[in-house]
Write a structure and sequence with these properties.
Two copies of one chain form a homodimer. The first copy, chain A, has 365 residues and is of the alpha/beta class. Chain A has 14 helices and 13 strands. In chain A, helix 6 runs parallel beside helix 7 and helix 7 runs parallel beside helix 8. The mean pLDDT of chain A is 95.
């Protein structure tokens, strides 16, 4: 007899039907069989409704229990159980997950987390600073020279834009060697610990080879794109590489964009990122180019931190159109365990000076 | 100088701002840099707005062009260009994609497609019949015996439920050996060509080993879950295995559930599935347990078939709560190049007789 995975869903629409819909969810997400026809043997594998609470004229909250053995400690099937076919149903949103110890035990989670990343970057208490290496269209030498400037100025994490793949302007291998080398030289000069973080935007066939090339060149982390590659591939890579994983939300927005469907911000960009091995989760801060609310950002930050079994807390990394002017308020909002990501705006005016001011601003706190 | 990828987006909201929003999309999806600061060198890598057409008081349609070299013929980056950060913006829906020959040339697409699958199943003109092997919770021997019954009755494709992973009730290796063997015995008895299709619901670490085990056991295809594993992994597997790929939409629903955001049904479950190597695309038929409209289903079917460079057409495979009673109308609706999927309902009453009637119904057309 296994323990239960608990999942909470918001069910939008006529509340009179909420209970019935919760019951069919329990079936849909597990044995997906007409309940009255299910063989007795399959009974131990079916979800159960623990409770349905009406929250408004068109909104109910249902708590379901799935036997842990239905997921079997494997991430792909855990995602299928939590939200697989659900995602195709109207008006169902996954808003809470509690995993039993036996399921959690199957996941390593973040290898570094907040403490590990702070150690690696020799930044025991202050907010971390990150920027994006861009734009696509520059050659590898120019990108490396920008990386050098940022590292000299004291930016901790110099991550590539998610769109840097293997384009002709800056082919992967050349780019990674030059950028890693540039950041190493900067660290040698300053005694700093900046890391260069290439994007894992690869065909799967080339994944292992490119990761080896990057590690050998001196990459200090990887930018994972779980929306593109699946959370499972990020989990696998995080378990294998000796450097931290920075998760980017590209292509994940559709899970978040409609209020009554999808997965909550805190679960998707906080808890799931963490379960799947990310050490920091990048997301669009409120008031930037995107449309996340302050509340949603706080939810992500909570998901990065709240106690979940043995999983280390990770850094929320708000970005997306942020500027130096916003930095103090962001630190106020998220607290010191935050990785501030400022990309394009550092290029406005004198790049080196902006980057140095970014660092001073945080050192001065 | 490369050709262009063309992408069409629906932009919801104030139409007065549509042009400005289309312009920022072009930037967001390529060099993601304040345009006035972008180095001249990056100019060749930026998207362009070809046109914006107002379609209603709150709806505009924007056509964008991205240099093909920005995607570089790689599927992960192609997805990032088409909808990566877009997915995080409110009121933007991807509704059309035209790839230039140089991008299409990088994709093999479906290995079998309609003609290949018809050859494999010795079904030159009739609709194909599929069912789902379930429920989770049964032991491997019981699942194999159900598979045998279905194959004897003349069902072409006996695919596993997407949730069959490696659970204790029917561990992968035992299940696959018994089911493949059961379908082979049935084929030997009937002279039929039924295929057993295990689900690719695996941790990535075990992927190669499990695919080998399944192929060696005699699996006649694989059920891919691109929503869970990413489209890229499906593409890779489709390029490597000598059997057809059946794509399942689990976890993809959030791209479809909100009218003004996400990706259109025809693109996501038709064209993208095909580009990434699926030979059939499973989706919930209108009027079943899910909420797709007839128009959306037709759009998927169109995406499976419309001429796209050298990509073979594939089977639309509507299912999701279908019954024998619906079959004639489904054939009328989709035409003969359809794979009809009936799962749980075949178990209502006498399973063997239902399956045989399913086949008779199609043979009698």
């Amino acid at each position: 007899m296994s323990s239960d995975i608990r999942a909470t869903y918001e069910i939008s629409g006529e509340v009179a039907r909420a209970k019935e819909r919760a019951l069919s969810l329990a079936v849909e997400q597990t044995h997906e069989f007409p309940p009255e026809l299910a063989p007795v043997a399959a009974g131990g594998a079916v979800g159960r409704v623990l409770g349905v609470e009406v929250q408004g004229p068109e909104l109910a909250r249902a708590e379901l229990a799935y036997p842990a053995d239905v997921a079997g400690g494997e991430l792909p099937q855990l995602l299928v159980v939590l939200f697989g076919n659900c995602s195709l149903l109207p008006g169902v949103r996954l808003v809470g997950v509690e995993l039993p110890p036996e399921t959690l035990a199957a996941f390593r989670g973040p290898r570094f987390g907040v403490a590990g990343l702070r150690g690696l970057l020799a930044a025991p208490t202050r907010p971390l600073l990150a920027t994006a290496l861009k734009p696509i269209g520059l050659d590898a030498r120019s990108l490396a020279s920008i990386a050098y400037e940022f590292a000299i100025a004291g930016i901790d994490v110099i991550k590539e834009d998610q769109s840097l793949a293997n384009q002709r302007w800056a082919p992967f291998e050349e780019r990674v060697r030059l950028c890693a080398d540039a950041v190493r030289r900067a660290n040698d000069e300053t005694g700093g610990h900046a890391v260069y973080v290439p994007a894992l935007n690869f065909p799967v066939d080339l994944l292992e080879a490119r990761i080896s090339i990057a590690l050998e060149a001196g990459a200090g982390g990887f930018l994972a794109l779980p929306g593109v590659t699946g959370f499972e591939l990020m989990r696998k890579i995080a378990g294998e590489v000796p450097v931290p994983i920075f998760a980017h939300p590209t292509l994940l927005g559709s899970f978040l964009s409609s209020p009554g469907t999808g997965i909550s911000h805190g679960l998707l960009l906080g808890e799931l990122m963490r379960l799947a091995g990310a050490d920091a989760s990048i997301f669009p801060n409120h008031g930037g180019r995107f449309a996340f609310s302050a509340e949603q950002c706080l939810e992500i930050s909570e998901g990065c931190r709240r106690p979940i079994g043995p999983l280390a807390p990770i850094f929320p990394a708000p970005g997306g159109g942020m500027s130096l002017a916003r930095a103090p308020e962001m630190i106020e909002f998220y607290g010191p365990d935050v990785m501030l990501l400022i990309g394009g705006e550092l290029h406005r005016g004198d790049r080196t000076r902006n980057a140095a001011r970014f660092r001073e601003l945080v050192d001065g706190l």
